[in-house]
Design a protein that fits this description.
With 135 residues, the chain is α/β, with parallel strands linked by helices. It has one domain: DsrEFH-like (Hypothetical Protein Ychn, Chain: A), CATH 3.40.1260.10. Helices cover 22% and strands 24% of the residues. The chain contains 3 helices and 7 strands; from the N terminus they run βαββαβββαβ. A hairpin with a 5-residue loop joins strand 4 and strand 5. The longest helix is centred in the first third of the chain and has 14 residues.
Length: 135
């Protein structure tokens, strides 16, 4: 039996205006449904994908941001936010959606999926991944 590869999906784009954010989310959910070891990273304007209170009525597109809350149900609980990207945009962890998962190894305790990491730490995470896909 082959070893499971680690997939890291890197999100760099704002949530709307291009198809990248939605496409990334769809690919992540498909991979997770097939039990891939999936992690997400949000850098640059990609950090806006996880901000709370998104309202797309003014631009006439569907708000897909609530779908991120389903990631924990697909065992996607490694979500990395680059600290420097947050700070450069005047954002903090409190500005992001509270994404959680239930840890079956800890009596189903609810835990945070989001991990704020430095660019150096994110570089190490990328190096440890078998496949890195950038959106």
């Amino acid at each position: 039996m082959s070893e499971t590869k680690k997939f890291l999906y890197v999100n760099r784009k704002a949530p709307y205006g291009t198809i990248y954010a939605l496409e990334s989310l769809e690919v992540v959910l498909i991979g997770a449904a097939f039990e891939q070891d999936v992690a997400l990273a949000f850098i640059d304007d990609g950090v806006y994908q996880l901000t709370q209170g998104q309202d797309t009525t003014g631009i006439g597109v569907k708000n897909f941001s609530p779908t991120y809350k389903a990631l924990g149900d697909f065992d996607v609980n490694k979500i990395y936010i680059e600290k420097e990207s947050l700070e450069a945009r005047g954002l903090t962890l409190d500005d992001l959606m509270p994404l959680k998962y239930e840890d079956e190894d800890d009596d189903w305790a609810e835990k945070d999926s989001i991990h704020v990491v430095s660019s150096e730490e994110l570089s190490e995470i990328m190096d440890q991944s078998d496949v890195v896909l950038s959106f």
